């Protein structure tokens, strides 16, 4: 655990340093310090462990560290009590990496997560007050942002979501693993977007 936590810290710092859009989006605390958390492993975590998604060589070490951290982090079930249903909840894998609490590393003014979804999953339109950046680490997915054409993103590609801008994500034949960072309102959770809001 000790060794993997150090690898994870090094790889997260390296990811921010070598991804210009991420570096511009938010700065990591220096030093990036650990904090205590109560681990929780969700059912979706096992799916990510079984099929992390392949990757380019650039993110292999980070991908492996993210998977190896599975028992030591607090996996989230963000949509457990929503109308989306158990099937989606059981397949949407996510844990926080950096944040004010419940993450292995502390930051007062940003949060970041790893998100993984299996092939053939549609993550419907949703929005939140926080500004957001996705950086794909492994696999690929189609990213939809309200007001712009959909794009297929692969390892190294990124997309920005403005505050309250609806966005959606769909995997086809491959899973996707992405690094997601938030800035701004860090406490208001995402909600699904009403259909009439994205049909205009
Ligand atoms: Fe989002």
TrEMBL record:
SUPFAM superfamilies: RmlC-like cupins. GO terms for molecular function: dimethylpropiothetin dethiomethylase activity. InterPro entries: DMSP_lyase, RmlC-like_jellyroll, RmlC_Cupin_sf. It comes from the Bacteria. This is Cupin domain-containing protein.
